[in-house]
Design brief:
alpha/beta; Ubiquitin-like (UB roll); de novo design (two linked rop proteins); four-stranded parallel beta sheet; four-stranded mixed beta sheet; 8 strands; binds flavin mononucleotide; binds iron/sulfur cluster; Nuop51_4Fe4S-bd; NADH-quinone oxidoreductase subunit NuoF; iron; NADH dehydrogenase (ubiquinone) activity; 4 iron, 4 sulfur cluster binding
Amino acid sequence: MNDILFRHNRPDRAATFEEYRAEGGFQALQKALADLSPDAVQQTVIDSGLRGRGGAGFPTGKKWSFVPRNLPGPRYLICNCDEMEPGTYKDRVLLERNPYLLVEGMALACYALGVERAFIFIRRGYELAALNLKGAIAQTHKAGFLGSAICGSGFNLELDVHQSAGRYICGEETALMNALEGIRANPRSKPPFPAVKGLWGQPTVVNNVETLSNIPAIVAHGPAWFKALAATPEGAGTKLFCVSGHVQSPLCLELPIGTTLGEIIDTHCNGMRTGSTFKACIPGGASTPYFTKDHWTVPLDFDPVAKAGSRLGTGGIVVFDQSTCMVAATLNLVRFFARESCGWCTPCREGLPFVQHTLERIESGRGDLADIDILREHVHKLNYAFCALAPGAMGPVEGLLRLFEDEVREHITGGKCPVKG
Ligand SMILES: Cc1cc2nc3c(=O)[nH]c(=O)nc-3n(C[C@H](O)[C@H](O)[C@H](O)COP(=O)(O)O)c2cc1C
Ligand code: SF4
């Protein structure tokens, strides 16, 4: 398989500017500035079929095409490296191994979008990644691939790194913009969408680290090459899967998008830990409904995963073995989301703690059979919250009720956890 994102990786440290350059780094940017118009770069990304890797899988080129070209004032690009979703650590790995790929990807995106100032919003605590990134920006500046009149063209670009003050909601793109502006980080209403009215009221594109890091290879090799990397006919490119939990070898790997769950666990993670058998997993970060052994052969690409009842999300896979109580696992996730609710809207602020307390009762053997319907009702009602945090929080609850209702019932009828005793 052709690695794109991990191509320049060293086993124990980040690639240097010289190494990245010697391995073809910044050639895509040089090619674009010399031979391609901004519209041609955007069209290349549209044709590549690249879909956003931040969770929702929105087509990247299409998102760029929503930015109006005729509004006065600046446009902005923001790279989202908030990455606070439990079970997801791919953006950290990318930046710890090779920050130059993101810098070049952002430069190409900014050229396509007509952006001259862009930001990287990075999770507080990702200190090594932030340090690498700041160093990479300085080196790239020195080499003339950032700053004024880049490579002798008329294109100018400055990149700024902003370290988050730290809340999960800051990863939501409009809350992120509030945080960057220094005001309370609650989501904004949409429409207007950021592409039209974003940071400081100006057109703004928000893209994930992994999304932007794919751009140099797409521009260098073309859309057909990128599409052919996928394991599914409808897919495009590779995907970073970060696996944790009860597998033999938890790790972050780059594989063709559409690789099956079974192959990831059996071949790449060396199977389950000794004594463990697979019970379930979260396939795409904490806000995605569970997969079970029935989903072993589902290609992990956006549409097949959605068809199978979950979401590819971030590709953060958390694996559970037979010793896991699924009520307790779900409670653990809901507790996180309830704590991270920004409190802006009532369904989420009040609903998530209520769901948490209901699960706590069931888990400790004090539940009532009526709680099952109450939970189901909340899965439905929390879809009407102000932003996607609350519906996402209910992803594992929906999966619990659909796939493990018997286990929930046994907690209630037996008055104790049937798994832990
Ligand atoms: C509560 C919440 C947290 C989010 N956290 C992140 C995050 O940490 N990183 C990210 O890229 N996207 C996150 N998103 C999605 C962003 O709002 C946005 O869709 C994404 O950054 C777009 O990038 P993409 O098009 O490249 O996927 C989050 C969304 C929600 C609702
Ligand atoms: S759904 Fe939750 S996180 Fe989103 S605005 Fe409402 S309170 Fe805030």
